[in-house]
């Protein structure tokens, strides 16, 4: 490109809009767009055509250039002529005879493109020798009967339009709403979109709707190694893209596809963190009593870095939502999986973790054990070994012993309560019998006194 500009004697885009220049490159190729009209030496033409080839698979490499300089017989690629329809297709106030410029117009005017893709007119126009008929029939069946069932109403029309654009421009990037990337650059594009919520959502939908696989089926040349690897991982990435829980979604896909992508969590400051131990050390350096220790970036980053156990741990984390103690323990298990470097002092981070473990300590029933555990956690934090802290907080034997002890205490309490209930009933029965006996004796005595009184009156009046 630099050589072409030097030969041209300046910027070939001077006085031409970016859109017009790009249309020229699409229609005629970069060589014609940059060097058209120049009288070049015959030896330079094949070299420049090869180096300026738009197709990355046929573009000259350093080896091709070396062979050309040595023997001068390397064949340079020719830019293919765009297929041209006999009748134009009108879209957004402009007529189109060739498919690639129309694909670009559809992608740039997405809302209008959504209306166009709902009509058979677009597919009928493409079928006029521009797209293979067998491929067209498959796509039309998928668009009309498949996409709504697979992707729901929110994304089906967008997926249909993305497919139509790929049919029109099979060598172009995958385009969906605000997201545009060639499969070779999809990983980098996802990483770049992490700070742009809508673009990240669109990138996730590309994986979820398996548009990379659809793009690959349109290619007539051998696929690159990066694309083949992406296709192998497509099912796993699609499952990550559609899962709503923390640690999944677009962020997880970005970290999974970019092994050298640093964790983007703002909790880590400006430092670059590339693995689990580095994450813990960064959190230790920035630890504060009231600071946060976890966010969705840390969850997704650890999910992509700690191996096969990640999905299980993240599923447990999602299931713990609403339970403060269970949520804290689920986070600690992720940190434990990331702690692969022994001997690193994490005392500040340990103290920060312990200060937030009140809900875990209070989840135990035995008061004496809660006091002992609290003291043990403080002592473990002072050692700076996060594994020791986690082993104390997430010890199954402690939980089992506390549960069994609580069950036994509850059973004993129920037994005592039952005995007290029986005793209370016996006392009440005795009181009732005493009351009845009192009433009986009272009646007897009253009768006796009445008889005595009657006898006395009889004697007096006799």
Keywords:
single chain, 462 residues, mainly alpha, two-stranded antiparallel ribbon, 23 helices
Task: Report what the structure shows.
Helix 11 crosses helix 14, helix 19 runs antiparallel to helix 21 and helix 21 runs antiparallel to helix 22. 66% of the residues lie in helices and 3% in strands. Strand 3 and strand 4 form a beta hairpin. The strands form two sheets. Strands 1-2 form a two-stranded antiparallel ribbon. A two-stranded antiparallel ribbon has the order 3-4. It folds into four domains: 70 residues, no CATH class; 88 residues, no CATH class; 129 residues, no CATH class; 60 residues. With 462 residues, it is mainly α. It is elongated and about 165 Å long.
Chain-wise SSE layout:
Elements lengths: L1 H7 L9 H11 L1 H6 L8 H8 L10 H10 L17 E3 L2 E3 L2 H10 L1 H8 L2 H7 L6 H36 L5 E3 L2 E3 L4 H7 L4 H12 L2 H7 L7 H18 L6 H9 L18 H10 L10 H10 L4 H10 L4 H15 L8 H9 L2 H5 L4 H17 L2 H8 L2 H66 L1
Antiparallel strand pairs: 1-2, 3-4
Helix pairs in contact: 6-7, 6-9, 7-9, 10-11, 10-14, 11-13, 11-14, 13-14, 14-16, 15-19, 16-17, 17-18, 18-22, 19-21, 21-22
Rg result: 40 Å
Low-confidence stretches: 144-154
Spatially, the strands of the biggest sheet line up as 1-2
- Mean pLDDT across the residues is 78
What is the percent of helical residues? 55-70%
Q: What is the number of helices?
A: 23
**Main β sheet profile:** 2 strands, antiparallel
Tertiary shape: elongated
Summarize this entry quickly.
The protein is an all-alpha fold. The chain has helices spanning 2-8, 18-28, 30-35, 44-51, 62-71, 99-108, 110-117, 120-126, 133-168, 186-192, 197-208, 211-217, 225-242, 249-257, 276-285, 296-305, 310-319, 324-338, 347-355, 358-362, 367-383, 386-393, 396-461; strands spanning 89-91, 94-96, 174-176, 179-181.
């Amino acid at each position: 490109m630099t050589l072409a500009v030097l030969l041209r004697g300046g910027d070939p885009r001077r006085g031409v809009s970016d859109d017009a220049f790009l249309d020229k490159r699409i229609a005629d190729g970069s060589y014609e767009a940059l060097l058209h009209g120049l009288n070049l030496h015959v030896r330079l033409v094949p070299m420049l055509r090869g180096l300026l080839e738009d197709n990355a698979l046929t573009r000259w490499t350093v080896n091709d250039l070396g062979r050309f300089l040595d023997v001068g017989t390397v064949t340079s690629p020719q830019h293919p002529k765009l297929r041209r329809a006999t009748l134009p297709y009108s879209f957004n106030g402009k007529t189109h005879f060739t498919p690639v410029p129309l694909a670009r117009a559809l992608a740039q005017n997405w809302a209008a493109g959504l209306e166009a893709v709902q009509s058979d007119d677009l597919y009928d126009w493409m079928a006029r020798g521009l797209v293979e008929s067998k491929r067209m029939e498959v796509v039309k069946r998928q668009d009309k009967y498949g996409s709504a069932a697979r992707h729901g109403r929110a994304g089906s029309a967008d997926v249909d339009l993305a497919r139509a654009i790929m049919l029109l421009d099979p060598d172009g990037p995958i385009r969906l709403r605000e997201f545009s990337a060639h499969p070779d650059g999809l990983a980098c594009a996802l990483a770049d979109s992490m700070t742009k919520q809508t673009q990240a959502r669109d990138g996730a939908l590309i994986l979820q709707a398996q548009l990379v696989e659809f793009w690959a089926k349109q290619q007539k040349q051998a696929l690159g190694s990066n694309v083949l690897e992406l296709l192998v991982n497509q099912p796993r990435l699609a499952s990550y893209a559609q899962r709503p829980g923390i640690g999944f979604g677009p962020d997880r896909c970005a970290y999974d596809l970019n092994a050298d992508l640093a964790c983007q969590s703002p909790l880590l400051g400006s430092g670059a963190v590339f693995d689990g131990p580095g994450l813990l050390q960064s959190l230790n350096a920035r630890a504060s009593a009231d600071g946060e220790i976890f966010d969705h970036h840390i969850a997704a980053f650890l999910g992509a870095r700690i191996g096969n156990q990640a999905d299980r741990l993240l599923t447990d984390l999602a299931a713990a939502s609403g339970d403060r103690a269970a949520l804290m323990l689920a986070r600690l298990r992720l940190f434990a999986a990331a702690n692969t470097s022994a001997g690193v002092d994490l005392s500040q981070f340990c103290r920060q973790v312990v200060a937030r473990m009140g809900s875990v300590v209070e989840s135990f029933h035995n008061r004496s054990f809660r006091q002992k555990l609290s003291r043990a956690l403080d002592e473990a934090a002072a050692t700076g070994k996060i594994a020791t802290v986690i082993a104390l907080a997430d010890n199954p034997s402690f939980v089992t012993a506390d549960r069994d002890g609580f069950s036994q205490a509850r059973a004993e309490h129920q037994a005592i309560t039952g005995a007290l209930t029986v005793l209370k009933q016996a006392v009440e029965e005795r009181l009732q019998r005493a009351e009845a006996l009192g009433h009986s004796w009272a009646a007897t005595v009253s009768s006796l006194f009445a008889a005595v009184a009657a006898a006395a009156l009889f004697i007096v009046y006799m």
